[in-house]
Write a structure and sequence with these properties.
The protein has 253 residues and is α+β, with helices and mostly antiparallel strands. The two termini are 32 Å apart. It has helices at residues 35-48, 56-61, 72-87, 103-120, 204-216, 221-226; strands at residues 2-5, 10-16, 19-25, 126-130, 133-137, 146-152, 155-165, 167-174, 194-201, 232-237, 242-244, 250-251. Helix content is 29%, strand content 29%. The protein has one domain (2-251): Roll (T-fold).
Length: 253
Amino acid sequence: MTAVATRPGVIRVEQIMGMPIVVDVRDVDDASALEPLFDWFRWVDRTFSTYLAHSEICRLGRGELSLTDAHPDVQEVLARCDELRVETHGYFDARAGGALDPSGLVKGWSVDRAAAIADELGWRNYAINAGGDMRLRGGALPETVWRVGIQHPADRAKVVAVVAADDLAVATSGAYARGEHVVDPHTLLPPTGVLSVTITGAELATTDAYATAAFAMGLAGPLWTARLRGHEAMSMLADGTALRTPGFPSVAT
C-alpha cells in the first residue's frame, strides 16, 4: 500500500483483486479516511476471487455451496451476469468455457458500491480507478471536471482520446498489458479486427460488461454499441480507425 498526499485531497493505491485500485479524493486530506473503501474491496476479493479456494465463487464452482446459501451480494452479481448474457447475445458470459467467473462484472460492480460509500461519506469530488476502469464524481479540484486519457492499445505512449466528465463511468476492454484475456464465448478465440473498446455510462458495472462484450464481438461490436441506450462508445479498429458514437464525451487534447 502507498499513500501520496496532494493538495487538495489525497490519493491512495492498493493492489487488490490482482490489480491496482486507486482512489483519488479531493474532499479529504487524510489517507486513513479512505479505509472504508479499501475494506470493501478486500471483502469483495475474499468473496468473489476465482483464485482463493475458500471464496464463495470457488465453492460455488466446486458445488460445495448452493446459490441459495450464498451471500446476497453473490446472488445479485450472478443474477445480473445472467441478464447481461441475454442482453449481449452471449458475448458476456460468466460461465464461458464451463467455469464460473463473474470477474468481468465484479470489478465494475464493486467500484459502484465503493462510490456509494464515498457518497455516504459526503465526498463530492473523487475518482475511483480499478485496473484502468473508472468512476468519476465532481472534479479534480481546482478543476471542475476529471480528465481521463484513453491509451492507444498499440502504442502506450499515445493517447487516442481524452474524456472529460463530472459524473461518469469509463471502461475500456482490449488486449493491452494483460494480453488476449478476452475471448469470444461462442468460439473461445480472441476477437479479430478490433484493438479496444471504450464505453461510458452512468454506472461502471454494466458499462464495463458492455465494453467486454463489444470487444469480444470483434468487428460486429461498433454496430452493437451504436444501438446502446444511455451509453457512448469508441472502438479502435486494427487498421487504426477510431469509430465513435455521436455523444462520446471526448475533448480536444
